[in-house]
Amino acid sequence: MCTETFSYLASDQLYAGALHIFTAFEVPVHLFGAYIIIFKTPDKMKSVRTSMLSLHLVGAFVDFFTSFLTAPVLILPVCAGYPLGVLGMLGIPTSVQTYFGLSFLAVLASAVILFFEERYHKLANVQRSSGRKSFSRKCYAIGHYMFAMLFISPCYFNIPDQEIEKLTINERIPCLPEEILSRTGFFILSIENREMYISLALLISVLVPEVLFFVLSIFWHLFNIKSQSRATNRLQKQLFFAMCLQVYIPFMVVTIPAAYCISSIVFGHYNQAATNLAMSSIAVHGILLTITMLIVHAPYRQAVLEIICNRSKMATINNPQIWKTVNETKL
C-alpha cells in the first residue's frame, strides 16, 4: 500500500536535524547519569552499581550510534535504507553500519537480561556470593553478547543484487521518489524479509523467556524469603520495583513506534514521514532510560535534587551581594 506524497515531514533535513538535536541533549544527560551512578551510589546499592553502569553505558552508546554515527533512514516495508550520520560521511559501507546497528540493539536487550540476572544471583545465592562472578556466569554473559552480535548474520548470507532489487522496490512502492534510490549509501538488505523474520524470531524466543524467568524468580524470592529482616526485605523490594520501572517505562514509550514499523513491514504500507517519526521516537530510548533511572531510584533522585538545590543556594547567596553592590553604587 502506497499513499504518500513526499513532504517536508519526510525530508532528510528535518529527520537529521531532529536526531542531531537529540544528540545534543543526550550526551550531557548520559554523562551526568554515569557520574551519578559512579559517585552517588549509596552503600545499600553497591551490589547493583556495576550492572546499573553497564546497562547505562550500553544504552548511551546505542543512542549515540543511532542518532549521530549512523542516523539511519529506513525505507519500509522492505528492509532498505541509507545513512545520514558521521560514519556514512567517512565512507563506512551501509551494510556494515546496518549490521552493527541491529547487533547493538540486541546487545542492549542482552544488557537488560544481565541487569536482572545479576540481581537474581545476589538474591538466590546470597549465602554463597563472594562478590565476584563465577566462571559459568562469565561464560553466560559472554555467550549472550556473542549471540547478540551474530543473530543477524543469516540475513547477510544472501544479500540481493542491489540494482535488480531497486526495480522491485519501484514496483512495490510506486510513490517512492526516484532520487531516494540514488541516495549515497542506499542499501537493500532484503525484499522478502524472510531471513529477517527468522533472525528476529530467534532473538525474541531466546531473550524474552530469560527476562521473564529472572523477573518472576526475583519476585518469588522477595516475597517468600524468611531469613531477612523486614527492613532489608523492604529495601530490596523497593530496589527491585525501581529496576523494573527503569526498564519498563522507556520500553513502553518506544512500543508504539516499534509496533508501527513492524506493522508497516507486515502489511506492506509505506509512509516515510511516519517512519521517520517512529525512528526519531525510538532514538530517544537511551535518554528515557537515563532520566527514568534518576527518577525512580530514591538515592539517585535525592542526589540530583541536592545538586540542583546547592546551585540554587549559591545563586541565592550571590544575588544579594550583587544587589547590594548595585545599590551602593547608586547611593
UniProtKB/TrEMBL annotation:
InterPro entries: 7TM_GPCR_serpentine_rcpt_Srh, Nematode_rcpt-like_serp_H. The keyword Transmembrane applies. The chain crosses the membrane at residues 14-39, 60-84, 96-117, 138-159, 196-219, 239-267, 273-296. Keywords: Membrane, Receptor, Transmembrane, Transmembrane helix. Pfam families: 7TM_GPCR_Srh. The keyword Repeat does not apply. PANTHER family: SERPENTINE RECEPTOR, SERPENTINE RECEPTOR, CLASS H. This is Serpentine Receptor, class H. The gene is srh-167.
